[in-house]
Specification:
- With about 475 residues, this protein is of the alpha/beta class.
- It folds into four domains: about 200 residues, P-loop containing nucleotide triphosphate hydrolases (Rossmann fold), CATH 3.40.50.300; about 30 residues, no CATH class; about 180 residues, Nucleotidyltransferase, domain 5 (2-Layer Sandwich), CATH 3.30.420; about 25 residues, no CATH class.
- The protein is about 35% helix and about 15% strand.
- It has an eight-stranded mixed sheet, sandwiched between helices.
- A hairpin with a 4-residue loop joins strand 3 and strand 4.
Length: about 475
């Protein structure tokens, strides 16, 4: 068709023209969509090709994403996808577009589609219009259906539930070849690692083609304001649950193995570690999986500083790993190096290559507990060294006893995404966890070589000498931190 007939006389433009704000406003007016929230308006106005929206459920993110796709559906001969974990989850954005461009044709004056299937049960969610544009739902459960075509615009429905490979291996290249658009609406989720990376990238404004937005549940004008206020009172404004489910913030409170690790608390800028501080290394072996070595220094109050990581995804030989680690450690006071005890031969091989390694303590439950002890904020903790220049207020009274240099990017990433399996969110062996754990294992091996950071408490059993002293108001023996001396 040379033109799309509509009450507002939308002319035929290519998709880039229809995405200009004045044309997009005309389309929104035609379908009766009038967003009021300023962040939602900015989301539509911005010309970025890749748009990431983080917002809680029922906040209108899917509704906004569907309208953001309308210009592409109205352009001639475009291919448009909604990709979801399943057809039922992808159907939401499809339904909004179907409602506007098919069911409400009396409002828009658009012609009848040449083909239209709207059945979740049969897996047929497909529209083709007379001007050649198509809209189709795709599912991650059938990745073979994501091959072959060039795509103009894609919505990743429920993006937090989609594996990274769906975008990076199946869809992204099909959009790049058309200079098309990717719309990525998501609720915050502990397993949405790839989405969080894009979201942070968009917030940083380092690439004009990637932008990110965040709005809370009040962006939905139909959401009852009293329910929002009730939840705030019930859970508390600072509650992780409230911040994630009502404000749409990335707090990663659900399912994490180490939920107390928070970048704003535990991640610090690097500093020159004094040569006299003892240093440790821990290794988690891998060939197909990453080979990881972590370095940590012990501060003057026995606090730990993870200051370096060797995170090698490429399969190298033991000789090459040994050489690289020794070069990185040159001139340092390495007290001890431990490795995964299940890899006895690899430990022997490293020793043969001149890298002394001992078997680590691999008691998983005890190790995770000790890591949590080091992460915990308490009056027994210590500010990071040196305290000056860290940007932390001196009024703070509780500190952890473990810090991570900001240069240890993979260690930080694993801390945030290492979680219990959804169906087994309880303590157990490593098979009950999800997410990469290579740095987590090395970190745990290293922490197990240090004593518990908590003060020893005097235990007075009845009818003992200590019990008798306490009963008469005497002060029992106090011990310092374990391992001090």
């Amino acid at each position: 068709m040379s033109a799309i007939t509509a009450k507002h006389s939308i002319e035929t433009f290519d998709v880039a023209e229809l995405y200009k704000w004045d044309r997009k406003q005309m389309i929104f007016d035609m379908v009766g969509y009038h967003p009021e929230h300023p962040t939602v308006i900015d989301f539509h106005r911005n010309p970025a090709r890749i748009k990431v929206v983080c917002a809680p459920a029922r906040s209108g993110k899917s509704y906004s994403a569907a309208h953001e796709m309308l210009p592409s559906c109205l352009a001639p001969n475009t291919v448009n996808w909604v990709v979801g974990p399943s057809y039922s989850l992808a159907e939401k954005e499809f339904r909004y577009i179907h409602q506007k461009l098919v069911n409400e044709r009396d409002r828009t004056g658009l012609p009848k589609p040449t083909t239209c299937y709207n059945s979740v049960a049969s897996g047929k969610l497909y529209i083709k219009w007379p001007w050649g544009a198509t809209l189709e739902c795709k599912t991650a459960a059938r990745p073979d259906g994501l091959l072959g075509e060039q795509v103009n615009t894609v919505i990743y429905s429920e993006a937090a539930k989609l594996p990274r490979k769906i975008r990076e291996q199946h869809v992204m290249q099909r959009v790049i070849t058309t200079r098309g658009r990717e719309i990525i609406p998501t609720t915050p989720g502990e397993d949405a690692e790839w989405v969080k990376e894009l979201f942070d990238w968009g917030l940083a404004h380092v690439d004009p083609e990637i932008r990110s937005w965040h709005w809370d549940i009040r962006a939905n004008p139909t959401y009852p304001a009293e329910e929002f206020e009730r939840a705030k009172r019930l859970y508390g404004e600072d509650s992780p649950m409230f911040r994630e489910q009502f404000l749409g913030e990335w707090v990663f409170y659900a399912g994490r193995v180490y939920p107390t690790f928070q970048p704003e608390t535990h991640v610090i800028d690097p500093f020159d570690i004094p040569p006299s501080w003892p240093r440790y290394r821990a290794i988690d072996f891998g060939h197909r999986d990453p080979f990881v070595c972590l370095w940590a220094a012990v501060g003057p109050s026995q606090e730990l500083y993870f200051y370096r990581e060797y995170y090698m995804r490429e399969g190298l030989s033991t000789v090459e790993h040994s050489k690289n680690i020794r070069q990185l450690s040159s001139g340092e006071n390495i007290v001890l190096t431990v490795g995964d005890p299940s890899s006895r031969q690899l430990i022997e091989d490293l020793n043969f290559e001149g890298l002394p390694v001992q078997s680590a303590n691999n008691e998983i439950e005890a190790g995770r507990t000790r890591v949590l002890e080091y992460l915990a904020l308490s009056g027994d903790g210590v500010p990071p060294f040196p305290f000056q220049g860290t940007g932390r207020g001196t009024e703070q009274t509780e500190w952890p006893r473990m810090y991570v240099f900001s240069t240890c990017k993979e260690l930080k990433r694993e801390f945030m995404y290492y979680r219990w399996s959804e169906s087994k969110q309880r303590q157990g062996d490593k098979e009950r966890t999800e997410g990469e754990d290579h740095a987590m294992d090395a970190m745990r091996y290293l922490v197990m070589e240090r004593p518990s950071p908590f003060r020893e408490r005097a235990v007075s059993r009845p009818y003992t000498f200590e019990w008798w002293l306490k009963k008469r108001g005497r002060t029992p023996m106090n011990a310092g931190y374990i391992g001090h001396g």
